Amino acid sequence: MGITGNTFTRRGFGAMLAAGLLVTGLGACANSDTGGDAGTGGDDKLVLGFSQVGAESGWRTANTTSVKEAAAEAGIELKFDDAQQKQENQIKAIRNFIQQKVDVIAFSPVVESGWDTVLKEAKDAGIPVILTDRAVDSADKSLYKTFLGSDFVKEGRLAGEWLVEETKSATGPVNIVELQGTTGSAPANDRKKGFGEAIAANPNLKIIASQSGDFTRAGGKAVMEQFLKANPKIDVLFAHNDDMGLGALEAITAAGKVPGKDIKIITVDAVKDGMQALADGKFNFIAECSPLLGPQLMDLAKKVHAGEEVPPRIETEETTFTQQTAKEALPTRKY
Ligand code: GYE
């Protein structure tokens, strides 16, 4: 939010951007508009190379839409690549962007480690890099300009704190199973950490099984089936995203248990299908993670391209939902 406001401090550039925004806002005829472009056509458009993780979840789909729409609105030429959840594909895409001499590179790193070499290549080529959604663990912070995304540790902690409150009068052990996100990814590492730290407050709470479902519905279903077979008493499921929770619902129902009652379900994201499950009483709690990063990302791309200083870390604002608040929020939910 602060970022958008600051655009107005750079008068000339700001006015130019505003004009670009208006022109693209007019739709198809904008491309043939010669009014303000003095014969240069669209060639001076900022070119942003964006490497997306994949299409693994409802969150990701909403994120991709947000990025594409915001680029169009901001008059930015977007080169979009889908890495299908593979790091090597992302590295290839970033190298392609460097070769094509794009103005700015943004990407959502599928895992945290192993980026230093390619990030150095971008830096040597003089192309600024923005991390969106997920972080890298590079020690050299000069390899990227900023990281825009959520505080995943906090999301895990909020999920755990809700459970501690919910089970405060429990006398016996409360058995928890955990569906982790993609192995080695920042949201999987951090949500696990935050949740684990929060539930340490109640010694009755025990994680009896924890495995990756790769952030997908199919993964969540398959791993939950194994959990149910191996553990006769499961009281709580903590899934690192809605989609794995939704997949697990099928496994739980097929095993003759009632989701939301026999097994309490806590997830992260708050995409529409997750919110619907919560409103329907099948989920019990969701820590929100907003995928609507597009407008802030475009604003940052313009700034780093103009050589402006940007904060090294920009955190997304988010909330949490119970069954009751999900019912209230659903009708106006955007994703
Ligand atoms: O929670 C999950 C997606 O990186 C925050 O990735 C993102 C996570 C999101 O697959 O649904």
From TrEMBL:
Gene3D superfamilies: 3.40.50.2300. Residues 50-308 form the Periplasmic binding protein domain. One of its GO terms (cellular component) is cell envelope. It is found in: Cell envelope. Residues 1-30 form the signal peptide. This is Monosaccharide ABC transporter substrate-binding protein, CUT2 family. Transmembrane segments: none annotated. Its main location: other. Pfam families: Peripla_BP_4. Keywords: Signal. GO terms for molecular function: carbohydrate binding. SUPFAM superfamilies: Periplasmic binding protein-like I (SSF53822). Belongs to the bacterial solute-binding protein 2 family. The lineage of its organism: Bacteria, Bacillati, Actinomycetota, Actinomycetes, Micromonosporales. It comes from Micromonospora avicenniae. Residues 316-335 are annotated as: Disordered. Coiled coil: none annotated.
